[in-house]
Amino acid sequence: MLLECGMQEEGLFRVAPSASKLKKLKAALDCCVVDVQEYSADPHAIAGALKSYLRELPEPLMTFELYEEWIQASNIPEQEKRLQALWSACEKLPKANYNNIRYLIKSWLSLSTRTR
What backbone torsions phi and psi does residue 42 show, to the nearest 5 degrees? Predict the structure, then answer.
């Protein structure tokens, strides 16, 4: 929905949605009954729900356990070795975390190729 409706919106992840609209959207998502048309005009609500989802996870997507490995990998100066170390850390993620990160990255890459 963000890719289709919100990527031209300025401040998409900076501008907060109204609290009541965000609460209503989160409740609808929890019940799997989202009226897409109701939120298509407000990409800030959708971005806010995504931010809230990521913030409220019991553990970060990249996990506490792998924190040091992510930090060490990001500090490798040589790009190829850094990418290999990051990939190695990705392979150690729980499947659900890996799938979430994979989806977010694929979506971002899809967007970045559209805006060039």
Answer: -130, 80
